[in-house]
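Work Package 3 (structural annotation) set out to generate three-dimensional models for the target panel prioritized at the project kickoff. During this period the team completed the workflow that converts sequence records into C-alpha cells, so that structures can be stored uniformly alongside our sequence database. As a representative example, we reproduce one entry of 109 residues exactly as it appears in the project archive.
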Amino acid sequence: MGEAIGQILSHGVAVALSAFPVIGVVLMLATPRARSNGSALLLGRALGLVGAIVLLVSGGAGPGDRGQSADRASALDQALGVLLRVAVKERRGRPRDRISWPRSRRCSG
C-alpha cells in the first residue's frame, strides 16, 4: 500500500504544481509589454524543448563516449562561457533610461 502511494505521490505533486506556469503566463500577459514578453517566453520554451529532446536522443553521452575529443568539448564550453560573459557585460552597460516610443495612431476610416 505504501509503495503505491509513493508511486502516485510524484504525479500528484506534478499536477499540483502545473498551475504555476499558467498563473505566470496570465500575469505576464497583463503587463504593458505583453507582446515582447510573450514572444520571449515562447522562444525560451521552444529552446528548452529542443534541448530536452537533444538530451534524450543523445542519451546523456559524454564527450569521450562517442569518440569525440574531450579537448573539443572543453573548448566549446569555454567559448560558450566567454559569450555569456560578454552578453552579461553588454546587458549591464546598456543605459537605464527607457525610450518612450510614440504609440501608433489608429486610422479613423
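The chain has a mean pLDDT of 77.
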